[in-house]
């Protein structure tokens, strides 16, 4: 009760811009990191035995969908330049690096009948280079780049993918397991499923509106849970790591406090957060009741013989419940909603949800159209998760800001600091968060936005043959935060020179 009251008081205060000038510090064991993903940085799309991913296929066949025509063929060329990447991590002084493994680089057929040793070796080299400097790898198994071969069999809409994903995870755990303490199974099911199978904004751009999204969500969640159980039963005692899933947990508030807007906001949170979190973290398990009800009702009206949202049977509910050591929270932005006044295609996820999204008056706009800064939203998202799901262990696995090119990125530094300030308040009010991850270490291929939206603490010069990386001002600010453990102390770099903090660690045999 006490925690609950403090929450209410604090969020009322920060949403009104109140401050108490108390210095809040991140505890010593709190971890700071940065993230990237395979397709977005690696390049080498067909080297050393790697096969095509759905993003290779999509952007090769449809260059017109990309804002500036860029694709991931070369990207930041991290496949060849990973040592420079680790040097940047050492400059920042981070505790960990979150990167992802490309499934088609490791298993070119998609299946484990053929293991691409060279592909696995790349990740092993990267991990060894990280560990040399005491930087922990946080490894994502799936960040949007499915082997094209599996897409031809239906991809995430085919329930067989649950087995294929388990087979893939096994190969990776066997090879890299002893060196990795933090695993993320799957990144952002909503992007995979809603944007990939409904809205056609991401590969595979299958337009199966209102149906495919939900098949995908069920399969993604079950694939995650099966891999979680695999690790729990066969690797955890040996390797002592933890396994989580990264979900998009952006905040949604009503446009104002009218009953209908508040109801719209509650519904929108169930459709964007609850749909993924409830099966794993709620006491009842299963999809949220409200979501089940709405989709069942609409499906009936639309003449479907059964709900477009597939059922979870009791064994599946059991498998999913508690199947995560931590919540990986990707948080970028906040929106305000009202009940929709638009006509959406029917059936579709947008129609099932039926809300309109608005922006707060004073919220600063990022370079990406969807990205607005509202730090209080991170606070509220944490408190929401705490109250709905009993204070789960969590890590912020992504948060970031997009700009134009340029090294003087004052806004990125400011946004990171303000969001970290909100996170400190959430921690004071009981949030069990162990890590913060800035997206991204460096500029990368921002999916269909190409390189027109830059998220990097380091700028990448795509015209340079060595894809030259240069620290932005925000890199120095983040480095300072990591050193001082304080988010907003007015510190500002006087020059953009960045020097190495993380030194080689003395080798500890037992650990390696
Ligand atoms: C994350 O997604 C991703 O995990 C990461 O790969 C990505 O680079 C990063 O954030 C920055 O976007 O332009 O209106 O069509 C965050 C969620 C998913 C939000 C794609 C933007 C496209 C919306 N993003 N979405 S739109």
Topology:
Blueprint: H1 2-15, E1 31-35, H2 38-41, H3 54-61, H4 78-92, E2 96-100, H5 103-106, H6 117-132, E3 136-142, H7 148-151, H8 161-176, E4 182-187, H9 189-197, H10 212-234, H11 236-239, E5 242-248, E6 251-254, H12 259-281, H13 289-301, H14 314-320, E7 326-330, E8 334-339, H15 349-353, E9 355-358, E10 364-365, E11 372-373, H16 376-389, E12 393-400, H17 410-428, E13 432-439, E14 458-460, E15 469-471, H18 473-484
Parallel strand pairs: 1-2, 1-13, 2-3, 3-4, 4-5, 5-7, 6-8, 7-12, 12-13
Antiparallel strand pairs: 8-9, 10-11, 14-15
Residues 37, 187-188, 191, 195, 201, 248, 330, 332, 369-370, 398, 439, 446, 455 line the site of ligand GBH.
Folded structure, characterized:
With 512 residues, this protein is α/β, with parallel strands linked by helices. It is 41% helix and 15% strand. It has 18 helices and 15 strands. The chain has helices at 2-15, 38-41, 54-61, 78-92, 103-106, 117-132, 148-151, 161-176, 189-197, 212-234, 236-239, 259-281, 289-301, 314-320, 349-353, 376-389, 410-428, 473-484, and strands at 31-35, 96-100, 136-142, 182-187, 242-248, 251-254, 326-330, 334-339, 355-358, 364-365, 372-373, 393-400, 432-439, 458-460, 469-471. The strands form four sheets. Strands 1-2-3-4-5-7-12-13 form an eight-stranded parallel barrel, surrounded by five helices. A three-stranded mixed beta sheet has the order 6-8-9. Strands 10-11 form a two-stranded antiparallel sheet. Strand 14 and strand 15 (469-471) form a beta hairpin. It is globular and about 65 Å long. The termini are far apart. The structure holds ligand GBH. The site of ligand GBH has 15 residues, from helix 9.
